[in-house]
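> example.struct
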């Protein structure tokens, strides 16, 4: 029997197995906030949508076999990497692709029309996730950023290294692992570049080169609304000192405070991109300057909470509960 959720529920749109979403749902339960958790990949086969517009907002129900909500009663949406809608496998192409597109437009488009708090709207998240757009906005918000080059030109890459006059790194422009035909998945770590080894392979795709920032440690700064949750990351191996993601076992953590200028800068950055959450990566130099490398608008944070005790899930739940 389907249970109707009343009392201004929160929609948690995510995959079935997501530890971060689990933590947020637990915190919402503590606050007695009703939750409908679902994966868009279950729509339309295991979920139904029926909404109507007449001289006002959309009204109607979203339901699965266990729960239903009236969309006009929703107070907030927590959106975290769900699957895309999937129509009946028996539909032949091109009709199946067309049906999937219609399902996405109907469900996500209806959710977009809700005048509620999002963490984060996927359209804003997608724009903000591109590193080339991040750095100029960060600099405009008063944050220090590394000197950078994006190029497919080997001469430009070598010239950049000469101009920097010190160590240079190369890093991916976007996240995601390499997936091999045999099922193996490996990350692409940041690495130091020897200018003498730069060759014509640079022309095969876009490359991001940056000056190396001397650092005592790095900081993962998770920002929820206006709340700051900052964790120092100390590297215990050579690989981790270049890219801490390459050697998690060599890392130690500590909680730290955020300088006022950095607080103002990241809040300005989030406002420019219309985001309520961001996971920022900073290096802290020997002189104490914070240098922003990037922000992942849908970045992982549960491991930081588990290692440090920072109440990030509680902060997200509080923001969603306020609506």
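> example.seq
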């Amino acid at each position: 029997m389907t249970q109707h959720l009343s009392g201004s529920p929160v929609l948690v749109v995510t995959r079935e197995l997501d530890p971060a979403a689990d933590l947020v749902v637990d915190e919402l339960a503590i606050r007695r906030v009703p939750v409908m958790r679902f994966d868009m990949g279950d729509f339309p086969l295991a979920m139904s949508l029926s909404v109507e517009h007449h001289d006002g907002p959309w009204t109607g129900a979203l339901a699965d076999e266990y729960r239903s909500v009236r969309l006009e009663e929703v107070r907030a949406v927590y959106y975290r990497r769900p699957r895309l809608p999937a129509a009946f496998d028996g539909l032949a192409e091109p009709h199946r692709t067309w049906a999937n597109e219609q399902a996405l437009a109907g469900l996500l488009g209806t959710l977009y029309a809700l005048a509620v708090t999002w963490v984060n709207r996927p359209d804003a998240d997608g724009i903000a996730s591109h590193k080339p757009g991040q750095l100029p906005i960060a600099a405009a918000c008063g944050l220090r950023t590394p000197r950078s080059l994006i190029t497919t030109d080997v001469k430009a890459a070598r010239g950049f290294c000469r101009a920097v006059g010190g160590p240079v790194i190369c890093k991916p422009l976007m996240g995601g692992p390499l997936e091999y035909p045999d099922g193996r998945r490996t990350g692409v770590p940041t690495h130091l570049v020897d200018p003498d080894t730069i060759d014509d392979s640079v022309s095969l795709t876009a490359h991001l080169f940056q000056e190396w920032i001397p650092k005592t440690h790095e900081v993962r700064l998770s920002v929820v609304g206006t709340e700051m949750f900052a964790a120092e990351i100390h590297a215990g191996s050579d690989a981790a000192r270049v890219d801490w993601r390459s050697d998690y076992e060599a890392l130690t953590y500590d909680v730290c405070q955020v300088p006022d200028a950095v607080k103002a800068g990241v809040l300005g950055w989030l406002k420019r991109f219309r985001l309520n959450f961001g996971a920022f990566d900073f290096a802290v130099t020997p002189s104490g300057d914070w240098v922003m490398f990037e922000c992942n608008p849908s970045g992982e944070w549960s491991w930081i909470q588990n290692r440090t005790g920072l109440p990030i899930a509680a902060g997200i739940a509080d923001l969603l509960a306020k609506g």
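> remarks
The chain has a mean pLDDT of 94.
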